[in-house]
Amino acid sequence: MSSNPGLYVHVPFCKTKCPYCDFYSITDLSLMDAWLKALKHEAAIYRDEFSAFDSLYLGGGTPSLLSYQQMETLKDILRTHFDFTPDVEITIEVNPDDMTREKLKFLESMGVNRISIGVQSFNDEVLTFLKRRHTASVAEKAIDLIRLCGFSNFGIDLMYGIPGQTEDCWLETLRCALAFQPAHLSCYQFTLEERTPYGRLKAEGKLHPAGECEEKRFFLSTSDFLKSKGFIHYEVSNFAKTQKRESRHNKKYWQHIPYLGLGPAAHSFKNGMRWWNHRSVERYCQALTAGEKPVEASETLSPEQLRLERLFLGFRTKGGVPLDDVSGNPKYDSTLSRLKQSRHVTVRKNRIIPTQKGYLIADRLPLMFFD
Ligand code: SF4
Fold first, then answer.
1. 66 alpha carbon – ligand 1 mean position (Å)
2. Is the beta carbon of 23 within 6 A of some atom in ligand 1?
3. pLDDT tens digits, residue range 173-186?
4. How does DSSP assign 38-101, residue by residue?
5. Which atom of ligand 1 sits closest to the CA of residue 132?
6. Domain boundaries, the chain
7. Could you tell me if the CB of 159 is within 6 A of ligand 1?
8. Yes or no: is domain 6-254 CATH 3.55.30.10?
9. This prediction's pTM
10. Does domain 304-368 have CATH number 1.10.10?
């Protein structure tokens, strides 16, 4: 397991805003250069604070919106201020409608070796509901190009449990995705977040999320289907073709390995301390222009809080949690044997490992050891 830190860069820009999306991004692209300038100041602040990064993740927003010039500048900023291991995993999130052969060749020349493409669905009706900018055929052409340009390490992001989507329709999307032989699939449950337009429709009773039974059915059929095709279900929402293709970067979040997040709304973690940046691009730029850290708030986690967090994160992954993290609790013995009996967990090599059934209640498992 790698213990090098990971670097995340938040690119907070999108051409249009999807009505279900709660990630921070704005559509005023005129602020891109100011963001990049501010990012340079932020990188300088953390110059000597982290050892060599072995993962770099460009997320958003829509990082594939960056122009070649902006991408070159970003690369210069990162290379000037930070060290990277020779085998660094460099991931970029892309949208299908940004993909051209020229752009992919450029990304390859920039050292990008992993692509995560946000497709969400291969069904045009679902894409229309999500108000995505691409159609299924645009997504298919984009993935063909990714493969043609020699990127074998690419993942497809998909969503299930969308209002009106049947299980058959979802499985058809999975089948379409597998036809491209992706190395990785992220399959997220569609949620109606409060502060989004669709979240507001839900509050008004005009949009209804999938019920708990339906969610469970989608989850289990996804896991069963992908496992039958040889994928490793290594985190509640993530599947990899081989262990090597699991996201090195995302595993840092789940395993409490230090990471630095640059850009608006980015989170960082080191030595039990977590801090996060202002969400607004303007506020972020103002702070850095004034020579201040763009940090909105921070927290130092006590050993007990860290332990609890390890449980919450660990029970969502196939690595599970160390027995030692729960064995001191009075309810330990009875809870563990009950969960083993009900086949929610197994115990292997001094670790409690969630089963597929355990993943379904991953967020509740830690508390069962404490209540
Ligand atoms: S889903 Fe992706 S493209 Fe849509 S608004 Fe969110 S970050 Fe932007």
1. 14
2. yes
3. 999 999 999 999 99
4. HHHHHHHHTTTTS--EEEEEEEES-GGGS-HHHHHHHHHHHHHH--EEEEEEEEEEE-GGG--H
5. 4
6. 6-254, 304-368
7. no
8. no
9. 0.96
10. yes
